[in-house]
Specification:
One of its GO terms (molecular function) is RNA polymerase II general transcription initiation factor activity. The chain is of the alpha+beta class and about 350 residues long. The chain contains nine helices and seven strands. Among the domains are: about 140 residues, no CATH class; about 80 residues, Up-down Bundle (Methane Monooxygenase Hydroxylase, Chain G, domain 1), CATH 1.20.58. About 10% of the residues have low confidence.
């Protein structure tokens, strides 16, 4: 929307110094159905545009009423986060800048047509703070295009404050330490790392654990000399046994070997059974993992299918609202692509479900 103001030089007598026009402009944002009506009114160029579209602002300069074909809409004047240059042309070749747009009049159906007036504030700090809070209500965080969503928050975001140490105190302490080192006869220093000290403590504790059994065994060895003498005598008696006892010992050894062979067979059989059970368990775990992967794929395809159906519904609603035939054909082509994508996703979902059912039956 545009309002013109004539400005001229004071005391100018020259005819060439004719007054020129300045334009102050703002953006009018309306609901979709009323925006199409206002667009048709502007394109028709009829003379009764003032009867069909009127804008009334309240004394606060921020709220007002916009009437489109005598339908009242509550409006609010907000400040945009950026400057938008407005251009106009006559021959569609040369463009002239007319104004910098920095405000937008937002109209809504469910707004309050006559909001309560706010009381004027004084000059004390509390009232100034209230004024700032009141101005924040009329700050618009977004631009007028999609890439400028939340542009005010992203452009004027708060930066992290670094925690600085008081440098004069640190510098004074460093100078004091250096002066004491210079006056000293000899200086000794060492670097203590907490990680290295912990590792050293762990190694020392492990070494103590390894060395403790050996020392106890050494002490026990000094006190068991009498037992070793008795064992030596017993071994001497065994070496002087007769041939009959040797034959009997050979027979016992054969029996022991037979017993060991049977035990080995039993151990082997048990090991084979354990291996079979482990392989069966491994196969079942593998099947469970494959089933889980199929479930994840099916859930992902279902989510995509739901999103595609939502896009399809939105595109159909958009086609119903558009009146331009060329634009409607373009939207219809996009709708056909979305329908094809929906069919592909349904086929993919059906094939995955069949594979999962066959795997579960096995």
């Amino acid at each position: 929307m545009t309002s013109k103001l004539k400005v001229g030089k004071v005391g100018s007598k020259n005819k060439e110094d004719a007054p020129y026009e300045l334009e102050s402009q703002f953006i009018l944002r309306l609901p979709l159905e009323y925006a199409s009506t206002v667009r048709r009114i502007a394109q028709s160029g009829s003379m009764n545009i003032k009867d069909r579209l009127t804008i009334e602002l309240h004394p606060d300069g921020r709220h007002g009423i916009v009437r489109v074909d005598r339908v009242p809409l509550a409006c609010k004047l907000v400040d945009l986060p950026c400057m938008i240059e407005s251009l106009k042309t006559v021959d569609k070749k040369t463009f002239y800048k007319t104004a910098d747009v920095c405000q937008m009049l937002v109209c809504t159906l469910d707004g309050d047509l006559y909001p309560p007036l706010e009381e004027p504030t004084g000059t004390d700090p509390k009232s100034k703070k209230k004024d700032k809070d009141k101005d924040k209500k009329f700050v618009w965080n977004h631009g007028i295009t999609c890439p400028l969503k939340n542009t005010r928050k992203r452009r004027f975001r708060k930066t992290a404050k670094k925690k600085y140490i008081e440098s004069p105190d640190v510098e004074k302490e460093v100078k004091r330490l250096l002066s004491t080192d210079a006056d000293a006869v000899s200086v000794r220093w060492e670097i203590i790392a907490e990680d290295e000290s912990k590792e050293a403590d762990q190694h020392s504790s492990l070494a103590n654990l390894d060395s403790s059994p050996g020392t106890s065994g050494h002490k026990m060895g000094h006190g068991s000399s009498a037992q070793r003498d008795e064992l030596r005598e017993i071994f001497n008696d065994i070496s002087s046994s007769s041939e009959d006892e040797e034959d009997e010992g050979d027979r016992h050894e054969d029996e022991d070997l037979n017993i060991m062979d049977t035990e080995d067979d039993l151990v082997r059989q048990l090991q084979e059974k354990l291996n079979e059970s482990d392989s069966a368990q491994h196969e079942s775990d593998r099947n469970n993992q494959i089933v889980m992967e199929y479930q994840v794929q099916i859930n992902g395809v279902k989510a995509k299918l739901q999103e595609t159906r939502a896009r399809k519904k939105q595109q159909e609603e958009l086609i119903m609202k558009v009146e331009n035939q060329a634009l409607k054909n373009r939207f219809q082509a996009l709708l056909d692509e979305i329908i094809q994508q929906e069919e592909r996703e349904m086929e993919q979902l059906a094939s995955l479900q069949e594979q999962l059912d066959s795997l579960i039956e096995k």
